């Protein structure tokens, strides 16, 4: 009996000591908890090539160093080239491409066939809809992300044409619909936009800066197969205003807003009041703007622009994009800069223990979230 009493007293004493220790232990700071919850994993898709430009495979996490604003970061996540990708495939079927719809479908099918079995694709295209009784160009998500090749083939058969180019609106729709949910673990840092387009928007309510900000934050790598429609457009732009291809009102407004925001000049909004010289000047500026926008988004995201003179060249360009997607690594890190101030942070990736001439192309930065 005495032994039982002694055992109980010992247990009670041990419990009291533990309770005392627990009380003496400093409470966890609430701000630490917020930092853990609010800290953002920064994803970096990247490609490594040798001196000859060929992909370097079989690298490990130890072969990479990551810096944010020149401060070394600790890599928390790594995926090798055999990890799957999620791809939003945007097909521009407006303007001069409308007569080449079958060629576009075949080129897109080549791209899908070149991907790996685990890669998932969502197809987005333009179509002509109605708004208040008038025809308008809108973008349409033809299928959610899937690796079912039969479903993708059916979706491609639904790709139609449009009477305008809602390019910027389509980029936002992809970000807000196709990539609305956070990626599953196997797709972290492995999402891509692949767009076949000339990049010249004509009908969007949004603008490029909105789309760029969204894709920049999401860490989606962006590839553009840039179709050269400028000769066709300008050939049909001149002469009688009734039969010529016209600029949309949105394009004319964008021209003045981007290139003459504060100029004290007369702004012509009626296409028929524009002479041939003015039409060509506006066209050149809009195509230059489109090229600059595609180049900047591809560069900052770690992607590329593939120029094609004719749609017949698109199949080879699609194949090149698929090949690169299949050789991408991805890294992830939690920034040591805990401020959520909306500033742009520069990312630099360096290679370690690899032969001279080896190069890396990666995401160049991101904009920090605001609390």
Task: Write a brief structural summary.
This protein has 371 residues and is an alpha/beta fold. 36% of the residues lie in helices and 24% in strands.
Description:
There is one protein chain. The strands form 3 sheets. The chain has a 6-stranded mixed β-sheet, sandwiched between helices. It has a 4-stranded antiparallel β-sheet with strand order 4-11-1-13. With 371 residues, the chain is α/β, with parallel strands linked by helices. It has helices at 2-24, 30-38, 101-114, 149-157, 167-178, 208-218, 230-235, 249-259, 276-301, 314-325; strands at 41-49, 64-68, 71-73, 75-79, 86-91, 120-131, 134-141, 191-197, 221-227, 304-308, 329-334, 344-351, 359-362, 365-367. Helix 5 runs parallel beside helix 6 (208-218) and helix 6 packs parallel to helix 9 (276-301). The protein is built from 10 helices and 14 strands. 36% of the residues lie in helices and 24% in strands. It has 2 domains: 34-81 and 329-367, no CATH class; 86-325, Rossmann fold (3-Layer(aba) Sandwich). Strand 5 (86-91), helix 3 (101-114) and strand 6 form a beta-alpha-beta unit.
